[in-house]
Write a structure and sequence with these properties.
Blueprint (H helix, E strand, L loop, with lengths): L4 E6 L1 H5 L3 H10 L3 E8 L3 H7 L9 H8 L4 E7 L3 H9 L12 H5 L8 E3 L3 H11 L7
Antiparallel strand pairs: 1-3, 1-4, 2-3
Bound molecules: adenosine-3',5'-cyclic-monophosphate.
Adenosine-3',5'-cyclic-monophosphate (CMP) binds next to helix 4.
Length: 139
């Protein structure tokens, strides 16, 4: 059964560009309820752990460098069918392929600097949410 929660980050490119408010607005307009929210910055160790699944990829070093380059906003979102519906709302990983009306179409620059993260499965949503938030930060 699909879970009703997903995890997201507004990445350093979108924070630097001043798009936190615009992106949270799109998330709310998409029917997602924010149940946890944090303005923070990943350390190198945090990013290497969070993205461990990608550590053999050629872009891993670039990914860690980018994700630690400035503050991010992390959040847990609630909605029926959250993981799949949020991936529809954010659009394709490469903004060149992202559909009209998606967050990445509006705010992403490139496949690496793509404005937002969205969990790719219910299991990863739970793991990623627990990486960023303690139980008493989730409401
Ligand atoms: P996301 O899906 O949030 O998590 C993995 C990230 O790796 C992905 O977003 C992109 O930001 C990044 N990524 C994926 N493919 C590439 C690539 N070919 N070059 C650089 N970064 C990439």
């Amino acid at each position: 059964m699909a879970s009703n929660r997903t995890f997201t980050m507004i990445k350093p490119d979108a924070v630097k560009a001043g798009n936190i408010g615009n992106i949270l607005q799109m998330i709310n307009a998409g029917g997602f309820k924010i149940v946890a929210l944090k303005y923070t910055q990943l350390s190198k160790a945090d990013a290497e752990t969070f993205y461990a699944v990608h550590n053999e990829r050629p872009f891993f070093g670039e990914l860690v460098e980018f994700m630690t380059s400035g503050p991010i906003v992390s959040a847990i979102l609630e909605k029926d069918n959250a993981v799949e519906d949020f991936r529809t709302l954010i659009g394709a990983t490469n903004p060149a392929d992202a559909a009209e009306g998606t967050i990445r179409k509006a705010y992403a620059n490139s496949i690496g600097e793509n404005a937002v993260h969205g969990s790719d499965s219910d299991d990863n949503a739970a793991i990623e949410g627990m990486f960023h938030f303690s139980g008493r930060e989730i409401h």
